[in-house]
Amino acid sequence: MKVLVVGGGGREHALAWKMAQSPKVQAVYVAPGNGGTALDSRLENIAITDVQALRGWAQSEKIALTVVGPEQPLAAGIVDEFRAHGLRVFGPTRAAAQLESSKAFSKAFMKRHGIPTADYESFSDPLAAHAYVERKGAPIVVKADGLAAGKGVVVAMSLAEAHQAIDFMLAPETGANPLGVTHNAGGARVVIEEFLQGEEASFIVMCDGKNVTALATSQDHKRLLDGDAGPNTGGMGAYSPAPVVTPQIHARAMREIILPTIKGMAQDGIPFTGFLYAGLMIDAQGQPKTLEFNCRMGDPETQPIMMRLKSDLFDVMMAATSGQLDQIELDWDRRPALGVVMAAHGYPLNPRKGDLVTGLPSLDSLKQANAMVFHAGTVTPPPGQGGKGEVLSAGGRVLCVTALGHTVKEAQKRAYEIADGIIFAGAQFRTDIGFRAIKS
Ligand code: AMP
Ligand code: GLY
Q1: Pocket lining: 220 vs ligand 2, CB cutoff 6 Å
Q2: pTM, whole model, 2 decimals?
Q3: Which residues line ligand 1 (CB under 6 A)?
Q4: Contacts of 86 (CB under 8 A, 6+ apart)
Q5: Extended beta strands in 244-385, E state
Q6: How is the chain split into domains, by residue range?
Q7: Ligand 2 near 235 CB (within 6 A)
Q8: Which ligand sits nearest to residue 291's alpha carbon?
Q9: What is the whole-number distance in angstroms between the Cα of residue 291 and the centre of ligand 1?
């Protein structure tokens, strides 16, 4: 069978790497892929990103199964397009992807269906937004509507910061970017919400429209700097499992958040298929609240999760695209896995591209070490330019060095040993990924 993975980040490298391990899979294509998927002889990059063109290519290549990694093609309707032409694809439709692509949609959905989340109001009028934060006080959270790669959120500790965030998000053309948030095409609408305190976890499930299967728990580190300080990023590292998600909290998250969401979407006439990722904030009483929904797997959470998955991913995806997830029991490696993101100079604001990456271990030596270097923002130079096997940085998050260990501490030690041997100019990475899990 031929499989297509759509996307080009670390998450997609991990999905493709796992898919290629299935004895039923003859070829794994990655569109557009990255330097890491280019270097792996079992994977092949396809330089097509346009949704209709990719659908045409998938038809002509008789692709048996397509898995979509990132939110942008989902929000652009890739699942609708593939299904309309009889192609098997795992992911939500464009309408269902609004759970992620519009904060206003997802907040209204949660309110309507009684799903625990922070209290909020949504605004397009800056005066009303400013008046609202004056009334509510700080700390308070200001979010741009629309997709923002985790960077459209300002957790304002003071009223001044909140006012500045509103000015920037609602009138982006007037301003410099005082807060370092990325404005996005989601446009001039903000959601302003109550500040929640607690510990975060990523709760990711697969849905086939009626059945739900939870993946192993995970947690990422969103802040750029050690000690969870500095600006928000797409994620600087992750590990699985997440000790904060106790069996009790797991059961509550399923009962109070995941199942009502799947049921609510079906009731609203927008059945959800695909990965559903609830970003949870768990308070001191063990009450989980939804910070956000993503309609895809997390990046970098996917990397440690795929390291731990023992089941055949192709079988799992075939079941998930035939309404038969209830027939599948996911089998996990009991050992924890941990991934450290190596990011480019200037990430997250202005990542530099084109730095030569050296010291990458061979795939064989990584396998021996129960580790893997998943690529994200990398390219291999076109034939005739640069050396054979040469890898250049090409995006904000460059690599995610992921390792299994008997304990989180051991996984962390292995990942850092490998990361320390990989060199590129300006590389930034945190030195404390997993510290909360190690502390607990
Ligand atoms: P989001 O993209 O909505 O998940 O927000 C990105 C990050 O901002 C989250 O992972 C949290 O660290 C933080 N955040 C978002 N909403 C809140 C909130 N209501 N209270 C506290 N922190 C938040
Ligand atoms: N790691 C956070 C995300 O994928 O949204």
Answers
A1: yes
A2: 0.93
A3: 118, 141, 143, 150, 153, 155, 193-196, 200, 222, 232, 279, 291-292
A4: none
A5: 273-282, 288-294, 337-343, 356-357, 371-375, 378-379
A6: 2-94, 125-188
A7: yes
A8: 1
A9: 6
Q: In this structure, which topology does domain 125-188 adopt according to CATH?
A: Dna Ligase; domain 1 (3.30.1490)
Q: How far is the CA of 205 from the centre of ligand 2 (A)?
A: 14
- The residue-averaged pLDDT of 71-100 equals 97
CATH number of 2-94: 3.40.50.20
Q: 274: alpha, beta or left, given left = phi > 0 and alpha = psi -120 to 50?
A: left
Number of residues that make up the chain: 440
Q: Which long-range contacts (CB under 8 A, 24 or more apart) does 251-254 make?
A: 252/286, 252/287, 252/288, 253/203, 253/278, 253/280, 253/288, 254/212, 254/214
Atom of ligand 1 nearest to the CA of 193: 19
What is the maximum span of the chain, computed from C-alpha positions, in angstroms? 62
> What mean pLDDT, rounded, does the chain reach?
93
Query: How confident is residue 148, by pLDDT bands cut at 50, 70 and 90?
Result: low
pLDDT digits (tens, 9 = 90+) for 287-329: 999 999 999 999 999 999 999 999 999 999 999 999 999 999 9
